[in-house]
Each structure stands twice: as C-alpha cells, then as structure tokens.
C-alpha cells in the first residue's frame, strides 16, 4: 500500500513539483488519504518535455526489435507485481479487484506483450514511378507525444498509449488523472527500470494546470487524449492552434439492441457486462441505452433486473464484491441527479435508483435500470458515466437503428441475436467505431478501437491504430542511372 508522498517521474528520476505543492489522493470507498502526489505545473511539463526531447534521437535510433524486447520485458516486470498493482488500483479507483482491477492490470500486461511483439511491423511501401526512380516510404515517429488519461481505467488507458507511442519510436510525456495516479506511477517505475531516462515521463497534477500546460507546450509534436468530450474539444482546439496531430478517445452513450430470439440468461449476462456495472458503469463503452424488442421487453428486463439485483456492492478489495465505489462525491451526485431527473419525468427504476442501502461512507450506488424513459430525455441522451442503464422498447429494425444512431456519440454498439442476417444487418447500420455481436466484454490487444462523431478521432489497441496515431509516412525519392 502507498502512504505518504509518491513522486512523479521526470528524466528517469523521482521528482517533486518545482513549486513544491502537493495533491491528496483519497480512496473513494473509505475516504482514507492514500498518498500525496506532486501538483505539477508549467515548469514540470517543460522539464518533462525537455527530457523527452533529449531522449528522442537515441530512442528513435534504437532498433524496433530492441524497443519491442524492452516493452516485452516491462510486461514481464508488471506481471511479477500484478497483484500489488491491482490492489493499489482497486484502492484508489474504488473499482472491484476481482472483476475490474485485476483484469485491468492483466490487460496492461497483454498490451505490453502485444506491442512488444509487433514493434517490428513498421513497414513502408515502394511505389513504382518509372525507370531510374526508386520511391519508398518509411514510418517515422513524431517526436515527443503529449498524452493525457482519465481515472476510470487509468493503468490500461495509460499503458495502451505509452506502449504504442514507444513501440513506434516516440518519447512520451503523460499527464495522468489527479483522481487515480498511484498505480500508473507504480507501473511507470517498472518502465523506468528498463528504459533510458527521459523516454517516458509521468507528470501528476490538475487538468487546468499541468494538463493545460501540456496542451500549450510548443515542443510537443502530437497530442493523444482519453477523457471527456468537453475537454477533448479543448485538446483539439489547442492542437489546431499549434497545428499538431491529435488523437481523441472521448465519451459514449452506446446502444445495446436485443432481438426477439435473444431472450436468454446468456444475453442478460452479456448486457450486464456490456453496461460495465462491475465498474460502476464508469466506462466509455458502456451499453447504457438498452433497446429491447417489444415482444420480449418485460420478460427480458425481468432477467436483467433479477441478475443486476444479485450483484454485490461493497469493499473493492473484498473478493466477493462485484461492484465497488463511484470515484468521488461530485460524480456520485451527478449520477443521482440523472436518476432523480428521469424519475421526476415519469421513469421507473426496475432495480436500483438510489445509494446502496447501508453504505454510510463511500460512494456506493445500486445498479439501476430505468424504464418508461423517453429517448429525448437527458438520461437517455447524455453520458451519465455511472451504473445507470435506460431501457427502451422497439418495434421494427428501421426504428431501432434510427434510435441507436440518434446520438452525438459513436463509440461502441452491441447487437444481441443469433439470427445471423438480422445481427449482421444491424451491426452494419450502427454508426460506431466498434460493434460487438453477442459479446459484451472489453477491448483485446489487436482489435482497432476508437470512436466516431463526438466520441473521438483515431484508434488504439492495434498496431494499425498505433501506426496511424503515432507515425507519419515519409516519402523518399531516389533517382539513379537505369
Ligand atoms: P476528463 O476529460 O475530465 O479528464 C481527462 C484528463 O484530462 C485528466 O488527466 C484531466 O486531468 C485532464 N484535464 C481535465 N481538464 C483539463 C484541462 N482544462 N486542460 C487539460 N487537461 C485537462 O475525463 P475524466 O472525468 O477523467 O474521465 C471520464 C471521461 O473519459 C468520460 O467522458 C469517458 O467517456 C471518457 N473516457 C473515454 C474513453 C475512450 O476510450 N473513448 C476511455 C475512458 C474514459
């Protein structure tokens, strides 16, 4: 367990903020002060960027195979302390260790091994331009990548960016979320044991201080952001000001469409997993708009609510717990506001709808399924980022596709049917970056993941996504005597 002060990592060294200020990190489930981290600002971002820039030339000249080997070794190093990191992560995020934190660390290990193994896939092309001309392309790193990540799955979402950026020859300054920086800092120390100083720099601090400084830092060559759509817009505006490329993984309000043949327990389990109830619904890919065919609406919702009601809410570190604590008081109040607002307009909570009974501390919310919701209401349109699913009946495929696509977001989608024609037809018509048929689980290394519309730009989790996000295609044209 962490206690006292945990330093950030700049140029291979444990570092305090230049200003000497600190930020507290609390355990959401208990309110306990876990540690203080440096309150980084402009000077710290400048120091981290200078270190990353100094390390860039050596790192880009390191062979892709050698870079890949180092990432694989970092993955092995993380695997050796997996349980320790999972406990730290569960404590600071409030996420249940069995269903969320331990699998999240495993995902980070898998990502390091995946990018370690694919780092050599930086292939270019040759283009025939006629006799006497050799024209070829190479994939070049941008330089220093400025990354920013949120608190909901901080280790996985930080590692996916860092591993992809490093595999492709960039160096990194990452500003991690002030809500949950400790496990990422612990993972960064494993990186640091294997990498030259300055290749990875981790700055802690507030969004409008360290985050804003990162956006304004002129030596950052590429911005890569995961977080809310509101802040994503600011990131894009900063990128536009400086004309640097930007990748954005933003919010979602993803549809989950259940066909008449899918009135089964297996689908109900899948719908609960896709809603990410075991992460308190704090997931960008949550299938939070549940469209159920009218012919099975009551029976299927009975299955879902019966299963949701069995989920155990409580201490994130208890192996029996399915659902932990919401991250903080502000987010808890926001979730409850959406639920109260919908109920005042006439919605009914089939299950949940309030604080978990008997929890006088922490931010424990009962998994909630709302019915009687108009698709135009805020609860059905806006990202709640909490354990709240709205259920809406549908009649025809055309109608449900229109409802599904009537959203500013386009991150994920779920289709539940074993009628292969209906399932594939519907999957093809959903406007989203990632559609799953009869599966409600998270990303796997190798699949390209990312949103469209207000859910973002670019893709992660695959080497193709990494090449698009973290390299540019450079053309070299050579004339020779043919
Ligand atoms: P957030 O946008 O508030 O914060 C994300 C990061 O940006 C944090 O590091 C934060 O400190 C920083 N930041 C905040 N204000 C800033 C500012 N003014 N200038 C610069 N940086 C600033 O998001 P959050 O609350 O941490 O996370 C929840 C959001 O993230 C949800 O909207 C969720 O959908 C989204 N998310 C998206 C994905 C995805 O892959 N698409 C994954 C996880 C979370």
Automatic annotation (TrEMBL):
Q: Which domain of life is it from?
A: Bacteria
Q: Which residue intervals define the domain Aldehyde dehydrogenase in the entry?
A: 23-475
Question: Which keywords does the record carry?
Answer: Oxidoreductase
- Asked if NAD is a keyword of the record, the answer is no
Q: Does the keyword Oxidoreductase apply?
A: yes
Q: Which residues form the active site?
A: 249
GO MF annotations, alphabetized: oxidoreductase activity, acting on the aldehyde or oxo group of donors, NAD or NADP as acceptor
The record's annotation in Gene3D superfamilies points to:
Aldehyde Dehydrogenase, Chain A, domain 1, Aldehyde Dehydrogenase, Chain A, domain 2
Q: Which family does it belong to?
A: Belongs to the aldehyde dehydrogenase family.
- What protein name is recorded for this chain? Aldehyde dehydrogenase
């Amino acid at each position: 367990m962490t206690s006292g002060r945990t330093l950030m990592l700049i140029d291979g060294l444990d570092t305090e903020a230049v200003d000497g200020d600190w930020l507290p990190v609390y355990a959401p489930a208990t309110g306990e002060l876990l540690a203080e981290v440096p309150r980084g600002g402009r000077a710290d971002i400048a120091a981290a960027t200078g270190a990353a820039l100094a390390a860039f030339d050596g790192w880009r000249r390191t062979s892709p195979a050698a870079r890949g080997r180092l990432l694989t070794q970092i993955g092995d190093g993380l695997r050796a302390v997996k349980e320790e990191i999972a406990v730290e992560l569960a404590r600071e995020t409030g996420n249940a260790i069995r269903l969320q934190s331990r699998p999240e660390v495993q995902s980070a290990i898998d990502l390091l091994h995946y990018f370690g193994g694919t780092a050599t896939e930086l292939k270019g092309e040759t283009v025939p331009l006629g006799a006497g001309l050799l024209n070829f392309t190479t994939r070049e790193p941008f330089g220093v990548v400025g990354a920013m990540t949120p608190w909901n799955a901080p280790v996985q979402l930080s590692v996916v960016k860092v591993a992809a950026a490093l595999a492709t020859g960039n160096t990194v300054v990452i500003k991690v979320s002030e809500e949950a920086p400790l496990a990422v800092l612990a993972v960064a120390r494993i990186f640091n044991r294997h990498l030259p100083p300055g290749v990875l720099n981790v700055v802690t601090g507030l969004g409008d201080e360290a985050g804003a400084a990162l956006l304004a830092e002129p030596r950052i060559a590429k911005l890569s952001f995961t977080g809310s759509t509101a802040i994503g817009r600011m990131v894009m505006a900063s990128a536009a000001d400086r004309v640097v490329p930007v990748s954005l993984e933003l919010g979602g309000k993803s549809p989950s469409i259940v066909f008449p043949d899918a009135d089964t327990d297996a689908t109900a389990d899948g719908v609960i997993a896709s809603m990410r109830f075991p992460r308190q619904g704090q997931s960008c890919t949550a299938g939070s708009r549940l469209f159920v065919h009218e012919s099975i609406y009551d029976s299927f919702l009975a299955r879902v609510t019966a299963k949701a009601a069995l989920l155990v809410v409580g201490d994130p570190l208890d192996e029996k717990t399915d659902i932990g604590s919401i991250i903080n008081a502000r987010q808890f109040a926001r979730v409850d506001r959406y639920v109260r607002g919908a109920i005042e307009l006439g919605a009914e909570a089939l299950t949940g709808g309030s604080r978990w009974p008997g929890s006088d501390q922490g931010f424990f919310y009962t998994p909630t399924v709302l019915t009687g919701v108009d698709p135009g209401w805020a609860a059905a349109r806006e990202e709640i980022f909490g354990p709240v699913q709205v259920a809406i009946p549908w009649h025809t495929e055309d109608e449900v596709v229109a409802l599904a696509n009537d959203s500013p977001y386009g991150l994920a989608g779920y289709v539940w049917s074993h009628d292969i024609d209906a399932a594939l037809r519907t999957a093809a018509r959903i406007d989203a970056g990632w559609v799953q048929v009869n599966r409600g689980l998270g990303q796997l290394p190798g699949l390209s993941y990312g949103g469209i519309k207000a859910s973002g730009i670019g893709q992660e989790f695959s080497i193709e996504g990494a090449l698009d996000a973290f390299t540019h295609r450079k053309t070299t044209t050579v004339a020779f005597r043919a």
